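Researcher: I'm preparing a figure for a lab meeting and need a structural model of a single chain. I don't have an experimental structure, so a prediction will have to do for now. The sequence is pasted below. Please return the structure as tokens so I can convert it later.
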Amino acid sequence: MLRVLSTHLFLNQRMHPGLLELASRSGAEAVEIFAARQHFDYTSREHVSELANWFRSNTLQPWSMHAPLYPDREMGRAGAPAVNVLHPEKSRRIDAMDEVKRALESAEHIPFRNLVVHLGERDDLWSPRTIENAITALEHLGAFAHALGVCILIENLLSEPTTPEHLMLILEMGHLPQIGVCLDLGHAHITSGTDAAIAILNDRIAQVHVHDNQGLKDEHLWPGDGSIDWPATVKALKNLKEPPALVLEISQKLGETPATIPGKVEQAFARFE
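Model: Understood. Here is the structure written out token by token.
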């Protein structure tokens, strides 16, 4: 399984070559870039070019990008609305898809293969309108991404529309074989359970967000610091027809330093050997 480190670990810092070098020294083969403007400003030609130039001369791969959750630099704290492609208001859905496309355009210079997209927010409800809006968004974003050589992956969250069962229903009803799934193990642990999520999503899983929690809230802890049954989860993942990429998605709030990160990253990936 490809070892990928999400830059979510560095979300409170501007993304720069030094952080990519730290990821490489930590044993990661690739990174998932988190598209938050205060971290990676996908609207800045200079910032995109800086990272693109680094990737061209180094072996670390730009495997995937996480689509923006907010359109500002403060993660919505100043009042900016969330990027929500399922919002009941059409204008909000259009604004959300436009923001995701802005991030996608960076693939012209940084050749990541996948874009992880959230379908809505935590309080969104499941309804026929939700299904319709989800299919419309995925058709639109999928066509835009395809022209850039990128695959859209939808993630199981903590909301009604994003349970494993509902994600599969959206994909089946929309006839969307080109859309894959990013299985988030932490979210699955809080909701359906990791084994059940793997069984339902099965061969649609292209990559896995790896992190831990105590089963109550989304903490993004290092594997083993929560209550996920890792031996059982690893076994279930290894039984999939195609091994998914492992994307270690750890919180930036844990106070890790350049000295502590390499050992913890190596220990986390060692659970999957």
